[in-house]
Write a structure and sequence with these properties.
Length: 205
């Protein structure tokens, strides 16, 4: 049965969710086939807010992002990647060794990470922005989600695992916890993503 072209375009809109299925959205591969297979669309959304919850910083979360950051900073022309209030100094040699273009990185030191994140996401000057913000209300996250749409930007917000009990307007929400020699990823909120926990062998980070 043929589908009306106008209806077909409507059904592909990223804001539309049809039960267990989701409208296809453009994505970037994470660089990890197991993770791609579990994420809706097969990767990180090209624009949207992703909330990553960890028991503490440095359990491997950045390893999940580096392949995508390498691809984004290799675009021509490439926009910035903003690191907002990171708890540790980004280790430039390790990033460069993984293919991340260093002169496209911008580190922002601030006591107002959510405000800085909103500016970075909505500016149109960034391919991606990463922010570490333990205290974030749903309305704060909603502003960030709207900013990703304005700037056509991918945003990652890192928070403590305890925030899993709170509501969030983020497009994608996942937790990362250490598991043996790697990490275990659980999709807390996704449209059409895996319901199974994903175990991955990666280094610390």
């Amino acid at each position: 049965m043929s589908v009306n072209p106008r209806l077909a375009r409507l059904l592909e809109h990223p804001a539309l969710w049809r039960g267990r299925s989701a409208a296809r959205v453009p994505t970037w591969s994470t660089g990890y086939p197991m993770l791609d297979a579990g994420l809706p669309g097969g990767g990180w959304p090209r624009a949207g807010l992703v909330e990553i919850l960890t028991p503490q910083p440095g359990v491997g979360e950045l390893h999940l992002l580096v392949p995508a950051l390498a691809r984004l900073t290799g675009l021509t022309p490439a926009r910035w990647v903003a690191w907002i209030a990171p708890p540790f100094e980004p280790f430039a040699p390790a990033l460069a060794a993984r293919g991340v273009v260093l002169d496209r990185q911008l580190v922002v030191r601030t006591h107002l990470p959510l405000w800085a994140m909103e500016q970075a996401l909505g500016s149109g000057a960034c391919e991606a922005a990463l922010a570490w913000a333990q205290e974030a209300r749903p309305r704060d996250l909603r502003r960030l989600q709207l900013a990703t749409e304005r700037g056509r930007t991918l945003g990652f917000v890192f928070r403590n695992l305890a925030a899993a009990r709170e509501a969030s307007p983020a497009e994608l929400r996942l937790s990362i916890v250490p598991q043996g020699e790697g990490v275990e990823v659980e999709l807390i909120k996704s449209r059409g993503g895996s319901r199974e926990r994903i175990r991955m062998e990666i280094g610390g980070g």
